[in-house]
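ok so I'm stuck.
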Amino acid sequence: MTSSTDISIIYESIVACILAIWFLLTILCQFRDTKFSAYIRHTIDIFGLIPLWTFFAPNPGKSDYHLLYRDKIDDETNGDWEEMDITEERSLWSWCWNPDKRDKKILSDVIQSLISNIPHYKTENGYDLLMFSMPYLIVLHAVSHCRCESGSAQRQFMLAETSGYLKEAPPSVILLSVFHQI
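replied:
not stuck anymore, here's the structure
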């Protein structure tokens, strides 16, 4: 009886040591700029078991982005701006069942990519080639599939940015598209 107890204590000790070493290496590898972290990541951690958490670094998110769209009713009249949800309110069951999570995450990532690419698509004569980029086309596709109440065949979208938790400042426009056929 004592031998099986001794074996289980040995197994528990081995597992505890492995988990303690893993925890210690995880803490030490969070500092990416060290030689030790690079050595562990590229030489020892061949299976990628040591996580790298960068929740707030190196560039924390400081603002929220909003995707709005409107339809052209006729030559002189445009519809009201409507916001397309790119984030969602978390419910009690969203940890278990959240079928829209990937779609919203993809759209949010594409919007981030579009915003970061805006300066790269400007040419010296001012002509904006951004509307031919893949992130722009994906956002246009998403906006084009929103419900159209006016029966319009043209739609425009806008990306706006708000900063701070209390939203003290009004939103600033980042991008205003031309009207596109839908």
